Amino acid sequence: MGGIMKIQRKILIIMLLLLIVAGITYILISRNISINIIKQQITNNLINTTQSRVKHIETLLDLEKEAVKQLSESVVIEELLLSKKEEEDYLLKFDKVMRRLKDTAQMGEYTYDVFVLDPKGTIIASSDEEDIGKDKSNDPYFLRGKERVFIKDAYISSHIQRKTLAFSAPILNKEDNRFLGVVVLRKSTEVLSQITTDSTGLGETGEVYLINKDGYMITPSRFIDEVFLKQKIDLRHTEEAGDIKYFSTSLKGMIDIYRDYRGIEVLSVHTHIPEMDWSIFAEIDTKEAFAPVTQLTYTLLLIFVIILFISIFISSFTSGTITRPLRRLHEGTEEITKGNLDYKVGTTSPDEVGQLSRAFDEMTANLKESKQQLENYSRNLEKKVEERTGELSDINQNLKKEITKRKQIEGTCRKSQQEFASIFKYNPEAVIYYEEEGTILNINPRFTELFGYTLEEIKGRNINEGMIFPKDKTIEESKKITKTALKKGLVKIETIRKKKDGTLFPVIISASPIIIKGKQKGIIASYTDITKEKLAEKEIIKAKKEAELANRAKSAFLASMSHGIRTPMNSIIGMAELMKYTPLNNEQKDYMDILKVSTDSLLDVINDVLDISKIESGHIEIEKIEFDLWELIESIGITLSTKAFKKGLELLCYIRPEVPQYIIGDSSRLRQILINLVGNSIKFTDKGEIIIKAETLKREDDRVLLHFTVKDTGIGIPKEKQEKIFGSFSQVDSSTTRKYGGTGLGLSISKQLAELMGGKIWIESEVGKGSTFHFTIPSVVVEKLEEKKKEVIPSEIKNLRVLIIDDNCTSRMILREITSLWGALPKEAEDGLSALKELKLACNRGKPYQLILLDKNMPDLDGFEVAKRIREIPECKKIPIIILSSEREETDLRRVEELAISDFILKPVRRSRLYNAILKEIVSEIGETVVEKSEIESVLKNRLFKILLAEDNLLNQKLGIRLLEKQGWKVTPANNGKEVLDLLEKNRFDFILMDVQMPEMDGIEATHEIRKREKETGSHIPIIALTANAFVEDRRRCLEAGMDEYTTKPIKIKELFSIIEEIYNKLGKNKFIK
Predict the structure, then answer these.
(1) pLDDT in tens, 408-430
(2) What is the pTM of this model?
(3) Which residues pair with 122 in a beta bridge?
(4) Cβ atoms of residues 524 and 543 within 8 Å
(5) From CA 124, how far away is CA 98, in angstroms rounded?
(6) pLDDT tens digit string along 291-308?
(7) Which domains does the chain have, with CATH numbers?
């Protein structure tokens, strides 16, 4: 038997070995493939992360180098270095430089110190006055900064123990290029930290950090505190791939798996930044990176173990079918040896083992038959006696067992009946027990209590007779309940039933069959009275309806009150405005002004109350529409600039270059937030400036998180009262309300609108220094418009030498950034005298400025006085000058004409307006030449066309009239869209040449109104758009508004004539005035 078992064991072991080898091989291959796939995916993510951070850092370094270079070229700094302390005006020059350095330090994000070194390396002026007089001659930013723009690697400032990055540039005499000193700008390394510490997309253990050329970390670690220039990164693991500088200069960086500075194994990608010899690392723990592989491995192992156990069972069964007949044969031989001739091998296997087994059984049967024949006679009588005795014994035993079993069953039945009777009787629900056909067998006391029927009254009656049914309920419902309970086992419904006294009440019926020994013996049903629940439900519905009615009444009341108050208020405001233009004495004029201010304030209160009411009632819905974000911000600035100027404030708009122009969102609510915040800043600021700033916090594909700030130099808010100001009807304190007025609703509305749009709002403020309101808005970029947004910059704008003259450093910075993006070469001057000196130096160098952007409102010399002195310089008489001002006064137009000023632009400056103004100056020179030298004629020359020319710029107007009248056409000018509509009511025209950007009513709005009127008259006048904006999207907007054609400025005469001729031929000559 041992030999047979050995064969079975061998078969089983061989099959299991084959299965284990195949399973382990499959698991290992699957694991390796998964590791490679996940490693590639994570590596791609880390490469993208390092590339984006490298671009960000390189852009930062370039911007700061350009900033320090611009500072080194400042005229006021040069004048100070050329002066001696004994000179009378030295202190005046020193004060100017100090103001410039402090302005630069305050404006630069993370900039904490700006100073000037003389040729010996001594600080002679600094934004931190304690630094003046210190010797920096041995510092690299002086030694290396004497030769070129230099960046000193990250270090800890010895004086204030601050983590620092220093930028320096040489100051050279513009006349003889002589070395005068060095200007140094020091920034906190937090500017680098904000780039690297963003762990978006890096999981729980991912991080990005920078190391310097010596391998020390210069940005924070996500896991260890205080690593700056303390934590050294072991670069020995990179030696296998080659020199660190070699592999780091590749486009994608070096990929590696190693133990990081924490001793934890990580997947790392690192890239080199050549300019600073830095390396940027993006890493993630391999445990997190390969967690899916580990999970997959465990899953495969579990599946393998299950398959292994199944295989053991199958293998055991299969081998058993082979060895079992052999084992039976062996057992048979042993049994026969013992004399047991009844033993049968009994196998039905068709193979040789089965044949052997059957032959063995046949032999055993023959032996048994022979033996029985020999013993048959001697045992016959004895056998009969034994059989009779055995039968009697069996009968006695069976009777005993049956009696015992019956007693047990009877005891169990009695116990079950007692338990059922107790449950039935004391059930808290009304219960009824009836047969399948409906005959009532029993009810419990609660049924009598609920329905009023006793057991004697109801037992034996049929439940379908209608005793407990209302009139509108038929016995079909009862039969349906019985049928469903018998079929599904349980039924539960809500319905109406009737008490003995006729009272109707709602119930929930639960019914189920009674089954005994597999046979249905009836139905048991319970009734739950839900009268109280129904009454409570009705009360809730009633209360809800009453609340809705109250809310509608409130809304109706507010709307009615709004209309009722606004209508007379508008009349009062209008009459007050008209009264101002009637003969009034000074006292009456004061009364009118007070009346106007009071009514405007009352309307603001009404609007705020209505808005807060809508928000609280949930009636405000956030729209999702495409709009131009840049245009929205700049238009808000223009709208509120007059209000700011009246208080002597400067209002500026600063849109960072990375901010998308076209987004999807609720433009009206965004406008409302910004107007509330800017209006609040204007109210609480008596001097200084207000800056509206927009920047991008985060962008993933077309998703963008926008960050807006409104910064003022107002009274500020104490820290303990900052949270309070966002509540309804809340201000800092009652004295603030008395002094400045207001409802205290504007900031509350702004907060709730920002949160409705998925953002948040907060404040940073310091008493006496001002406040900065922040809010974020998530949005979606309109990719198709961003891709189509391509400005066609004429070659004349690129490398255009521009001088920016403005006493406000923020304004200069904004103008410098805008013009630099267009390819111009801007320089700055902070006052009129510095500008005049710079203009003369530029002329002496043979590179005079080609355009001047001049602020009107400056101390000492205002813009017009500076322009007058510029015109007195012979070489500067023809330089185009564009005046920038926060308000236009009545005398400005006269002075603009007297001084040959090219354009007058209101602050805050709109990019499109400035772009058009600069383009116009280039075009005006080219255009005049075309008029003088070109002899292009239209084939429609001397046709008696009447053309309406809509153009707000006088120079462009004159140029257009001159071009068109040379063709024998009659031209009527209009300054804006409203004048166009007025002229069309009184005259007929063949064509309208429509400028898109005009004051009061622009070309798009005017075209909409013209086409609306034409629907009533059935006529059609061709409209040709004229604009300096060369965007594909602008063309689409013009054509969608209803314009027939579109052409860009500068006007190409041949193209314009071709468009007119094409329209003439398409519409037919009969359509035009004879």
Answers:
(1) 776 766 666 676 677 777 788 89
(2) 0.43
(3) 135
(4) no
(5) 10
(6) 887 888 888 888 888 887
(7) 73-189 (3.30.450.20), 194-287 (3.30.450.20), 427-529 (3.30.450.20), 536-613 (1.10.287.130), 623-788 (3.30.565.10), 801-923 (3.40.50.2300), 934-1071 (3.40.50.2300)
